[in-house]
Amino acid sequence: MSFTPAPWPRKLRSQEWYGGTTKDSIYHRGWLKNQGYPDDLFDGRPIIGVLNTWSDLTPCNGHLRELAEKVKAGIWEAGGFPVEVPVFSASENTFRPTAMMFRNLAALSIEEQMRGQPIDGAVLLVGCDKTTPSLLMAAASVDMPAIVVTGGPMLNGWFHGEAVGAGTHLWRFSEAVKAGEMTQQEFLDAESAVTRSSGTCNTMGTASSMASMAEALGMALSGNAAIPAVDARRRTMAQLTGRRIVQMVKDDLKPSDILTREAFENAIRVNGAVGGSTNTVVHLLAIAGRVGIDITLDDWDRLGRDVSTIVDLQPSGRFLMEEFYYAGGLPVVLKRLGEAGQLHREALTVSGAQIWDEVKGAINYNEEVIRPADKPLTEKGGIAVLRGNIAPNGAILKPSAASPHLMKHTGRAVVFEDIDDYKAKINDDALDIDETCIMVLKNCGPRGYPGMAEVGNMGLPPKVLKKGITDMIRLSDARMSGTAYGTVILHTSPEAAVGGPLAVVRTGDMIEVDVAARRIHLDVTEEDLAARLAGWEPTHDRATSGYEWLHQTHVGGADTGADLDFLKGCRGAAVGKDSH
């Protein structure tokens, strides 16, 4: 796809605040000058907002203040005027009930900061899981020149001579303690070893997956996704990004020029190739909705079905993000997809070039980490979308992280009405459950939890773990961490809290799962299911005020991105005028 730059010089929107000699312009300039800025910075050059999701309570992004200085240096070098703006940081580590409930609030607040303040372009400084999609959603809605730079993954963790992944080994070690294979003290000793440097999770969890999505969509410079947080090249990338956004403003290169259907199709295929998080599904659906691109679960299934997972990273494989970067990172994956005819080569990127021109010279330095096409980690990667009477709008599963022997299975349902019910029962040896059962969790979707928490990868019962069993089918309307693994069926839609069929599943029901056929079926008659649904009453807590009420009242289903219903397709709204 070709792009024609806008003429330069021209009057930018920031001049509505700072240009001229009126009372209003003197007011705006005068106040900003109290920071010591000289007159010539208000001469019409691009003013760039460095939208920083740094927070002490967002540990993944704890180093972003340093990166912001490098971004600002790049902006100064390119003749721009940087202004750092702290924005809503939806921390995965701390927010309750779940950071996902605040993704949409963050997007809404950041959208209005972009629209209502005197900036001509934005650098989206992100890292932690929800910060990347929330800023991309905002930028897509405002349609102002914007570019992503991520904070990068932490260094490999090491414990007892083994490379350990943040998140992934937390789940593994927790199960090992319940199975009696690891002591509680050993678990505590591993705590600091698993997260040993600044940065996001070092597995192909949600943060790394969304960094990969930003690059695959063309919204970040080539090579951005995998550079470790503490590597000097991450700071270099930040400075280069600062330089690039100034030219993007001069050219008027906007998200709407980049976030095309072809870009989203590239990202979906990349997610399959890297073994990306299931969370990318709900985030890309939401971002696509903001630009009016009709991407559906069917697209996820169709586009990912024939994509092999070639990146051997935890949680699906063996290695961590450090090795992925040293092997060549995402450009190698994009090149491999392009060679296989699975990449829209002409898709535009923030560099102004087509994506194929960015990656065609990429070299793979480690074919154990990024495997050859004929030796994939999983031959059929991507995201499997299952449908049936229990999930008429769809449910998803990540084949690269699942157990092959469970991909076709019929089991007896063991039902937990909500997460508290699960916690109360799961460790009880009297619970009637074995490894052939299917664990079912309700009321954990976008409205039910509320917010759709990462509780779908339910830990197995201790009595099953002690038999050496490490996986069972788990079914819910929840999400799971991108660092998690197992045969976990997620995002079941409609969710239980709105009266979807999941709400009326009972312990003892038989459930059929056939991933190859993309089928999930509750073995009851149509008449029985209809009668159950007719008698259903909601049991989840419902808010009566505040953002929680707004969220529960207006959030859409997981199958459409779980965005607020009044924000979809809102790109093109006016980007604001000085009203002082």
What would you note in describing this structure?
- Strand 7 and strand 8 (391-397) form a beta hairpin.
- Helices cover 34% and strands 13% of the residues.
- The protein has an 8-stranded mixed β-sheet. A 4-stranded parallel β-sheet has the order 2-1-3-4, with helices on both faces. A two-stranded antiparallel ribbon has the order 5-6.
- With 580 residues, it is an alpha/beta fold.
- The chain has helices at 15-18, 23-33, 64-77, 103-116, 131-142, 168-178, 184-194, 206-217, 232-251, 255-258, 261-274, 279-290, 297-304, 321-327, 330-339, 355-359, 419-425, 462-465, 526-534, 546-554, and strands at residues 47-52, 81-86, 121-126, 146-150, 157-159, 162-164, 384-388, 391-397, 408-416, 438-441, 473-476, 488-493, 510-514, 519-522.
- The longest helix has 20 residues, at 232-251.
- The protein is built from 20 helices and 14 strands.
Provide a concise account of the structure shown:
With 580 residues, the protein is of the alpha/beta class.
Name a few traits of the molecule:
14 strands; alpha/beta; 580 residues; 8-stranded mixed β-sheet; 34% helix; 4-stranded parallel β-sheet; disordered C terminus
